[in-house]
Hints:
By secondary structure, the protein is α+β, with helices and mostly antiparallel strands. It is built from three helices and two strands, in the order ββααα.
Amino acid sequence: MRIQWDPERGVRHEALPYRSIQIGLSGEAVRRYVEEWTLGITDITDQAREVRAALSRGAHVSAPLPVERPYPLPEDIMETIGADSGQRD
């Protein structure tokens, strides 16, 4: 397994002022992810096209995008992986 912090990106691929954790799975975790943990796959092609069209018109894009929230973690895990509470001022 590989864990790294990568810059978060906006809809125009600009760097945002915070980082998000990227977790790479290997071995047994990959098999379980594919065969057990994945509950569904949703085709969001139409929403992506809406976002692209709105951006090309110079519009502010937020409506077709999902609301993102920090994943709640116990304090000990947050400390281990170097995460903060995700609270933004």
